[in-house]
## 1
Amino acid sequence: MVRIGQNILEMKKYIFILNIILGFFLVSYFFFRSNESFNNIDNQNGLLTLKQKEIIFNYLKDFPNKTQMSIAFIREDSCWFYGAIKQNDTVSEIDNKFSNFEIGSITKLFTATLLADFILDSTITLTGKINNDLDFRINNDIQISYLELANHTSGLPRRPSDFYLTAMKSPLNPYKAYNKEKLEKYLKEKLVLNQPGELTYEYSNLGFGILGYTLCQIAQCDYETLLKKKIFDKYGLTNTTSIKENISGELVQGLGPFGNPIWNENWGSLEACAGLISSVHDLTKFAQAQFDSNHLELALTRESTLVVDSTLEVGLAWHIMKAKSENDWHRHNGGTFGYRSSLVIDIENKTGIIVLSNVSVGNPNKFSIDDLSFELMKTINAH
């Protein structure tokens, strides 16, 4: 009986040890699995090449769960769409071509198009001063031209100097409180140039906010109304807006730097720099319109106005990349607290790539969205 008891005791001890070992391997398996993403992109619609599928997977797999990418491939009059989402550490297909994302600074392309329209109808001149179209005097009588605002050579800082005080009062939506009255007060009393008298490239959200504000003052209407009249209706953009309440269809949840759900931004009086919401389906119409030489206002925005260096020139908002391929690429990206976007077109080849995502501008891998668009652009130009 003693021997049987000892055997039972030893058996329980071995079972206990085996359970510990088994538990260790199970924990290890699920730990490592959570750090490995699985590819479930099966290319059901047959439009992606194997290389393109691998490129998308390799970029998306490193982002947090619930990350989406909505991608448009453009070749002349044809386009096709592809959506991917990461869920439970698995990357899968999703139909999100009509889904809405904040597009951030791609908004600047629309504001620049408004500017070009005003120039072509002789309302203003590109080198004319905005001072002539405001009903108040800018601080210290600083003179600023439309061109300087549109190609980032005004010397204005990225944000107004008093923005941070306003942001402290509303940290979850810092631009919302920076209303028209605050912008006008800044222009009248506080505006100071970082590089007065120098035509040096310095990217400025404030500059495009002021540009949009001034155009609206001239037209005597709000930004949304001006966009609808001059761009949305003309190019058939039915799902692009600066007003969140106006969107139709799904608004994809924006994600914070670590994949946490995050609020949508309201850009207040600076909406013309980054305030639009759109889908790849709508943006494709805007991109394809760039290939039509009859759209003179679009052609004007793409003309080079500044040589930054041997690899980069600037049009009106557009950044012209000189070293990515045989032809110039016109591109712009965008980023907000919950979203990241990239749009690239090749006018000569009439090709383009648009990538919208809910990757945060605070994510350390945010520039991967730009890199993804460049890699996909190379694949579409190779065919």
## 2
Amino acid sequence: MPLKNIIVFLVIILILHVAALINGLYWLIPWLDIPMHILGGVWVAMFFGYLNQKFFKSPSFWPSVLLTLSFVALFGVLWEFFEFFLNHTSSLQKFGSFQGDLTDTMADLFFGLIGGLIFILLDKVFKKNKIKT
């Protein structure tokens, strides 16, 4: 996948996230957090796929899956730390609470991993179809 497409996808996610924050959509539509974390997981897996293809060239499917999901999990944890930081930074509390309870945090990590799996499966299907055509 070209780096340009990965950057465009990130910009789309960021625009959606900022629009949701500004309009209070995360609080009006509590489940909106779920597709956003899925999209984030897809993006992180997409970015790792790019890095893997460009620099690491993981030789087989299953190690690549494990590394991709590990990368997604790492970014998910870092994102949750970021939300925790925002909750405890007084100048940013005007946006409201960024992080819920432990259940919310675990669900965010879970849905990020689901996004990573979605990318892995789609990538596998597209690569398989590309080889056949």
## 3
Amino acid sequence: MKKRPPIIVQKFGGSSVANVQRIRRVARRIVATKRKGFNVVAVVSALGDSTDDLLALAHQVNKNPPAREIDMLLSTGEQVSVALLAMAICELGEEAISFTGGQVGIVTDHFHTKAKIQNISAKRIIKELKKSKIVVVAGFQGITPDKEITTLGRGGSDLTAVALAKAVGTTMCEIYTDIDGVYTADPRLEKNASKLPTISYDEMLELAATGAQVMQARSVEVAKKFGITLHIRSSFNNKPGTLVTEEAKMEALVVSGISVHKGEAKITINDVPDKPGVAALIFKEISSRNINIDMIVQNVSKTGYTDISFTVPRAGLRSSMDVVRKVARKIRAGEVTSADDIAKISVVGLGMRSHSGIAAKMFEALAAQKINIEMISTSEIKISCVIRRRHAQKALHALHKTFNLHNLEKLQKKSEHK
């Protein structure tokens, strides 16, 4: 029996298919991979900034558009890109077929604009691959069991790609973007950022969750769970990118990366009755509205009342405030205030597990720049601080220099010679 070619999933972001020239470039790359002996499943985002353009259009006709209709609208962006890419591939002499998320059986829950994948049937994809076709799938979208179109949230095409890799039984997933890998900081914000040859799932997950825009955090979770190796690379050159694997750490590197997230807002509930169960009531009510909460700080009670502060996505601040004000009235708390001029800066690294003093070093660096810290959150391999947004660039540069990340090549050589 003839052995089937191995399957590889290749995901291309919006910048990779922003115009006809780039679509043709992507088509040539996919065809080249096919002719090297692979079966290719390509996952594609909407063209360029078309998702943002569609969102802007929606808000022109309705200041608070229904989530279901947002999904109906945004899902059209990927349908345009997959059809055009399939046409471009056919022009190069290979057979290709494009599908929406629903057509390949990506079944999700009912949470519009941030749905979670429940199941994928890969039968239709496998059937077309057996015919030696290149399969092009719309990223970012799925369908509920009762045939409602949903989208998977910002960066959802990453999740589509990783989930499809699992569904078709491959551990190879390439993520093509407009930068050639994962850097110690966003190279658009820090000119001395260095590219990491490898990074662990845990580090990539923390960086993604704290604002690095290279990959969607949920996609990294799925990759880690099923052992799918991610190769993050540029669609504009053939250079090796960054491999995301189980454990990938240079011994001399304590901090692997620094991220800045400007998309959050802070909400504070003042004068909360300091009684058992009150905090549970607050956050249960908020979570029931599918609002994601990140950092939480509660002051020590001295008078029987306390203040509780937490961060939410800035895009959802208005709806979050509506919910929180209702909860505050229910528990007879005081004023509810908000601030949307904040940023979260985080340092991430597996080396933090075995090295002490990282937090002190971070706080000293920020203090030296006269940057006040408003909130702090930690995990085993991450420290995050909320600061004022106007200080974000200065903080990033100071921390990148403090942890010597601009000398990555020297650190790598040091690690190799140990």
